[in-house]
Design brief:
By secondary structure, the protein is an alpha+beta fold. The chain is 41% helix and 25% strand. A seven-stranded antiparallel sheet has the order 1-2-3-4-5-6-9. Keywords: Cytoplasm, Heme biosynthesis, Metal-binding, Oxidoreductase, Porphyrin biosynthesis. It is an enzyme of class 1 (oxidoreductase). Its EC number is 1.3.3.3.
Length: 293
């Protein structure tokens, strides 16, 4: 296990994604080094209303509660966590929000072997649904995981559907993708390879969708619905997301953790879209688990 090897991959991935998105948007990301990582953030870009691609390398003398919830035997150990996390909020409502992260966690105790595991994934949160976009995103996810076993993609797709679910709303956050955590099956090289495959697949999965939709015209109605649906995104991140909790509990930088929140959001009391509208179609056709590929 080589922390420098991990760091080199994660920082390289961050730079590749940021450089590509800068060309796509036409505006530079702000690169903000803060001691235990670098946050690359764009606000009021030509295309992205807000987005962030963050690298962090956090260490501590005691595992945060969010990290030991599924591993209570590791409570009290020192830890090291490093990875890349990103969230991108386009301005155009026909372009979906997307989230991705890849990470490695190492827990140590004197006189014992280090315990390591990987986690990550990516998912898509559309405001207006397009079948070809959903199929494309899920196909790239499937193909990225295919070399690691025929059973891996179905398991990680279901894990994503189950994880990105607002239990208090009984509603999916979006159309899923893949998600995995606590990965230490087989060798370190295999697990690191799988994690790299997911990280490397993000741009091919997401960017073609943005290129296809970026010129679609929209108005106040579409922006209003986008702001309403963004409220669900905020609710998930602040109520259910383990990554948000870990970041705050581990002494992470609050600005970098909460850059995932969209800049404009609305909530309404007991509102539902009119049947037969494109807004209603998001709920009936897309916000439910489906085998897209």
């Amino acid at each position: 296990m080589n922390s420098q090897l991990l760091k080199n991959y994660f920082t390289g991935l961050q730079e590749r994604i940021v450089s590509t998105l800068e060309v796509f948007d036409g505006q530079k990301f702000r690169r903000d080094a803060w001691g235990r990582g670098t946050s690359c953030v764009i606000e009021e870009g030509e295309f992205f209303e807000r987005g962030g691609v963050n690298f962090s390398h956090v260490t501590g003398d005691k595992m945060p509660a969010s990290a030991t919830a599924h591993r209570p035997e590791l409570a009290g150990r020192k830890f090291e966590a490093l990875g890349v996390s990103l969230v991108l909020h386009p301005r155009n409502p026909y372009c979906p929000t997307s989230h991705a992260n890849v990470r490695c966690f190492i827990a140590t105790a004197e006189g014992e072997e280090p315990v390591w595991w990987f986690g990550g994934g990516m998912d898509l949160t559309p405001y207006y649904g397009f079948e070809e976009d959903a199929v494309h995103f899920h196909r790239i996810c499937r193909d990225a995981l295919a070399p690691f076993g025929a059973d891996v993609h179905p398991r990680y797709k279901k894990w994503c559907d189950d994880y990105f679910f607002l239990k208090h709303r009984n509603e999916p956050r979006g159309i899923g993708g893949v998600f995995f955590d606590d990965l230490n099956e087989g060798s370190f090289d295999r697990c690191f390879g799988l994690t790299r495959a997911v990280g490397d697949a993000f741009l091919p999965a997401y960017l073609p969708i943005l290129e296809r939709r970026r010129e679609m015209t929209y108005g106040e109605r579409e922006r209003d619905f986008q702001a309403y649906r963004r409220g669900r995104y905020v609710e998930f991140n602040l109520v259910w997301d383990r990554g948000t909790l870990f970041g705050l509990q581990s002494g992470g930088r609050t600005e970098s953790i909460l850059m995932s929140l969209p800049p404009l959001v609305k909530w309404r009391y007991d509102w539902h879209p009119q049947p037969g509208t494109e807004e209603a179609r998001l709920y009936t056709d897309f916000l439910r688990p489906r085998d897209w590929v």
